[in-house]
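Example record used in the benchmark description.
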Amino acid sequence: MQRRTLMRSASLGSGAMVAAGTLAAPAIAQSMPELKWRLASSFPKSLDTLYGAGETFAKYVAEATDSRFQIRVFASGEIVPGLQVADAVQNGTVEVGHTAGAYYVGKDPTFAFDTAIPFGTNARQQDAWINWGGGRELLAEFYKGYNIHSLPCGNTGAQMGGWFRKEIRNVDDMKGLKFRIAGLAGEVCNRVGAVSQQIAGGDIYPALEKGTIDAAEWVGPYDDQKLGFNKIAPYYYYPGWWEGGPQTSAYINLGKWNELPKAYRAVIEAAAAKAHTLMVSKYDAENPKALRELVAAGTKLMPFPQSVMEACFGAATELYAEIAAKNPRFKKIYASWRPFRNETILWFRVCENTFDNFMGRQSAANKL
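Model output (structure tokens):
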């Protein structure tokens, strides 16, 4: 009798616990605020991978919060032009943006470290510096001055060198070339004689078509094919030495970030990381097919001449020394970034590159 009573009590207790658990989850969810944010993207909707990272970010936030935290994504130009996203986040026009720090080197060249600087790191090396080399902390300190909290939110992997109307045989062919190129790379190109211009992604095709520019770089085969650059400029150069592993970022208004509950901050971090991983893997999956199709359609695939690479490398090294001498913010981050880059490249030379180069030779010999 006593045993049956005990069992019945235990059963009732278990049922009460289950009921409490069933009621607890909604109660916890209801304790979190309902938020509706706007995200301004620097990219047009036609670029499903770049623009799509913002959508992935927003979707993950909504799903993880049972839609209590919603972020509506706006393409370049819908709220602000693509190259004004940082301003919109800084002054609170929008709560969050998806953009690239390299677009804002006119404000301060230090922004470039959040994307890529010429002859810098590849995608994995950039992640390593951000996560384990002090990059995140250094950039957080820098962005405070712009009322922004920045998170990695995508990477394209190594980019192509762009589309040219004429063949580039030596450094002299760069002289007077009107070249759409963003970030510090524009200044490097200027130093070897080109005339750089920064134009948002959605505006490049008409500028190239009208002859306003002679050449343009964007990302790589998958995006470039969508934008139709091959219809105007036949020469497709590689590599994009200015963006070996360019990162895009989620810019969050610092005041709005500080107001978020810790749980929502964790969701934002996870959402950005999800978008980050998906972007680089999608480009790696889509670029090979797009490149084959471009070449089959008549694109002339060509490497930059070694003389051009060497001249640009020298110009870039001189530029960084000059900036560091007069910009303490740039100097502080460069002092961390440069030795980290050199060390990680040494490791890649030993193992990663050896493997990649061997497999490349097997591919060239049709042995795969």
